[in-house]
Design goal:
This protein is an alpha/beta fold. It has helices at residues 3-20, 49-52, 54-57, 61-70, 94-107, 137-155, 171-187, 202-215, 224-249, 266-277, 312-325, 340-352, 389-396, 398-406, 418-422, 429-450, 466-476, 478-487, 491-511, 519-543, and strands at residues 34-35, 45-47, 77-83, 87-92, 122-125, 160-166, 256-259, 281-284, 287-290, 301-304, 330-336, 360-365, 368-372, 375-377, 414-417. Helix content is 50%, strand content 13%.
C-alpha cells in the first residue's frame, strides 16, 4: 500500500469510527479524493471529503472535518489541519517521503510501468487518412495523439492494439486513378480535361512524372479502362508507401493495417443483413435505410443506395462490427472535428447491432493553425497548398512537432508557433525538458570521472533542501499521473508533467551541487538525479519524444 492509499484508508476509518460511535448517522460514504496542494505550506495532501459527506452525515463540513482530524493517527502523520469551509490538509512525516522514494529508486526502470489491468484488449484506430496524397499537419496532430495514447495506455497496464484503416475502396481511389491519368496524358502533350473531383496536389503530377520517367509513353496505346486500373494500383502503392514512411519518421507505427477492400462485398452484406434481421433497416425509394433516429440520430441514414452501391456508412458499420467481433472490449477512434456529425450515426449502428455504444469512444481532434513570425501560415511554400507533415518535420524536427501537438488537449484548437518550436532555448518547452535530461547525463559523466557511484542504500534523508524535497514529491506523483492520464486519454497531462518535472530539476541543479560536497550527500543527490532522468525518459517515451544525452 502506498502513502496515498494509507491516507485514504485513514480518512475512511475515521468516518466509519464516528458512525460506529454514534457521532455521525450511518450512511454510504463518498469516495475519498486526495489532491496535492499547489503550495507546500498547505501540506502534502488535501481532501474535500468533509464537504462531500455533509449530505450523508447532516453536519456542516467544518464539524465533520474536526471530528475526522480528532480520529487521525499513525506514524505517517505529522499533523492534519482544517482549512477554509472544511478542507483537510495532511502534513506527512519526513520518513514517509524518503521511504516511498527509496522504493522508487529500488524499482529502477520499472517505475512508471503500472501493473497489468487484465482488461479486454483496447483498439486505438487513428490517422486513417485516404492513401491519395501526403499527410498534412492536421493528420500530424492525430498521429502524435493516437500514438501517445497507445503508449500511455500500455504504460498504465492496459492491453492495447493500434490500427490504421486504409480507405482503399470507393470513389477516392477512382478519383486518384483519373487524376494520375489526366496528368500523365497532359505531360505527354495530350489535350485532356482534368476530372472535376480529381486531386490537384503537386504529388499527383510527380507520380505521373515518375511513371513517364520509368515507362515512357507505352501506356498511351492501352485501353483507358485498363490504364486507369494500372494507374490506380501504381498510385495507391506509391501513396501508401510514402504515407508509411512519413509516419515511421514521425515515430508512429501500427500493429495492424486494415484494408477497406477486405470488407467488400461479404462483410458489408453480412452487416446489413444483421441489421435487417434486427428490424433496424427499411427500404425507401429503392434504397436501404438505417433507423438511426431510434438511437439518437437526427435523421435516418442510407446504407445501400438505390443503385445497390454501399455508402461510406455501410462500410464503417461493417468495419466496427468486425472490430467487436475480433474481441476488443473498447474501441477508440481519433477523428477530425469535421466528423462530429458522423459520431451519432456510427454509435447508433453499433447499438442497433446489439453492441454497447459506450464501448466506442470517439475523440475529436480540433484544428491546427501554424504561425510564423506572428502570421498565420495557410499554404506550403513548395506547393502552395496545405502544409504537409513532412515539411513540418523538416522545419522544426520530429521531437518539437510531436511535443507541440501534444501540449494541448485534443478537443482544443492548437496554435502552433513554428518560430518557438525551432528555438534552442528554455523558451521552447521541449528543448527545456530535453536539456534537463542532457544535464543529468553530463552529471553522470562527471561522476564517473571522479569515481562517484550510487551505492545500494544511499542516505536519502540527507535530501532536505526545499528543491530536493519538491523534486522527490513530484517524482512520487508520476505513476498516479500516468494512471489518470490514461483513464482520460489525455497525453497533454504527461506533456505538462514532464515540463514541471524539468523545471523542478533545473531549480535543484542551480542550487544544489553534487560534486565537491560530503560523500554521503553526493551519493544521495546522485540517487535523486538518477530517478529524475528515468522519469523524464519515461514521460518523453510516452510522448514519442527522444531524450538526448548531449545538447
Amino acid at each position: 500500500m502506498d502513502i496515498k492509499d494509507t491516507v485514504e484508508q485513514a480518512i475512511l476509518e475515521a468516518a466509519r469510527g464516528a458512525m460506529k460511535d454514534g457521532v455521525f448517522p450511518e450512511g454510504e460514504l463518498p469516495k475519498v479524493a486526495l489532491e496535492v496542494p499547489p503550495q507546500k505550506e498547505f501540506g502534502d495532501f488535501a481532501t474535500n471529503f468533509a464537504m462531500q459527506s455533509a449530505r450523508v452525515f447532516h453536519r456542516s463540513p467544518k464539524q465533520i472535518a474536526e471530528e475526522l482530524v480528532k480520529r487521525m493517527a499513525g506514524d505517517w502523520l505529522e499533523r492534519a489541519e482544517i482549512a477554509g469551509p472544511g478542507f483537510i490538509n495532511f502534513h506527512l512525516r519526513s520518513h514517509v517521503v524518503y521511504d516511498a522514494f527509496g522504493r522508487i529508486l529500488e524499482a529502477g526502470d520499472a517505475y512508471g510501468q503500472l501493473a497489468p489491468k487484465g482488461n479486454q484488449p483496447i483498439q486505438v484506430e487513428y490517422v486513417s487518412a485516404n492513401p491519395t496524397g501526403p499527410l498534412h499537419v492536421g493528420h500530424g496532430r492525430g498521429a502524435a495523439a493516437g500514438s501517445a495514447i497507445v503508449n500511455l495506455l500500455r504504460a498504465a497496464g492496459y492491453a492495447v492494439e493500434s490500427e490504421y484503416y486504409i480507405n482503399d475502396a470507393g470513389n477516392q481511389m477512382e478519383n486518384l486513378a483519373r487524376s494520375v491519368n489526366a496528368r500523365y496524358l497532359e505531360l505527354l502533350g495530350q489535350n485532356v480535361e482534368f476530372p472535376e473531383d480529381g486531386y490537384h496536389g503537386a504529388d499527383i503530377r510527380e507520380t505521373a512524372e515518375r511513371i513517364i520517367k520509368r515507362d515512357g509513353d507505352q501506356y498511351l496505346s492501352m485501353n483507358e479502362e485498363e490504364r486507369l486500373e494500372l494507374f490506380k494500383d501504381l498510385a495507391y502503392r506509391e501513396k501508401l508507401a510514402a504515407l508509411k514512411e512519413d509516419l515511421e519518421d514521425f515515430q508512429v507505427t501500427f500493429d495492424k493495417w486494415f484494408s477497406e477492400r477486405t470488407l467488400h462485398p461479404d462483410a458489408v452484406r453480412e452487416a446489413v443483413e444483421a441489421l435487417e434481421k434486427n428490424g433496424t433497416i427499411y427500404e425507401k425509394d429503392g434504397a436501404l435505410w438505417l433507423k438511426s433516429t431510434e438511437y439518437g440520430d437526427d435523421k435516418d441514414r442510407v446504407v445501400i443506395r438505390d443503385n445497390g452501391v454501399p455508402t461510406y456508412l455501410a462500410a464503417d458499420i461493417a468495419y466496427h462490427r468486425n472490430k467487436f467481433e475480433r474481441g476488443f472490449g473498447t474501441l477508440i477512434n481519433l477523428w477530425g472535428a469535421d466528423h462530429h456529425g458522423y459520431v451519432c450515426r456510427v454509435k447508433a449502428s453499433m447499438k442497433a447491432l446489439g453492441y454497447d455504444p459506450d464501448h466506442l469512444k470517439i475523440l475529436l481532434l480540433q484544428m491546427v493553425s501554424l504561425y510564423r513570425g506572428g502570421e498565420l501560415v495557410k499554404m506550403s511554400k513548395r506547393t502552395g497548398e496545405s502544409v504537409t507533415l513532412r515539411e513540418l518535420m523538416e522545419e522544426v524536427g520530429t521531437d518539437a512537432a510531436r511535443y507541440f501537438f501534444l501540449m494541448r488537449s485534443l478537443d482544443s484548437q492548437l496554435d502552433f508557433d513554428l518560430d518557438l518550436a525551432k528555438k534552442k532555448s528554455n523558451e521552447n518547452p521541449v528543448y527545456y525538458i530535453q536539456y534537463a535530461h542532457a544535464r543529468i547525463m553530463s552529471i553522470f559523466r562527471q561522476a564517473k570521472e571522479t569515481g562517484l557511484a550510487l551505492g545500494k542504500e544511499p542516505k536519502l534523508s540527507l535530501l532536505t533542501d526545499e528543491t530536493e524535497t519538491e523534486l522527490i514529491r513530484k517524482i512520487e506523483e508520476y505513476e498516479e499521473e500516468v494512471d489518470k492520464a490514461a483513464a482520460e486519454y489525455a497525453p497533454q497531462r504527461i506533456a505538462r508533467y514532464a515540463y514541471d518535472l524539468a523545471a523542478l530539476f533545473h531549480s535543484f541543479y542551480n542550487k544544489c551541487r553534487i560534486m565537491g560536497v560530503d560523500a554521503e550527500l553526493a551519493e544521495a543527490r546522485l540517487a535523486l538525479v538518477t530517478v529524475t532522468a528515468h522519469v523524464i525518459r519515461h514521460a518523453l517515451g510516452i510522448l514519442g519524444v527522444s531524450a538526448p544525452e548531449r545538447m
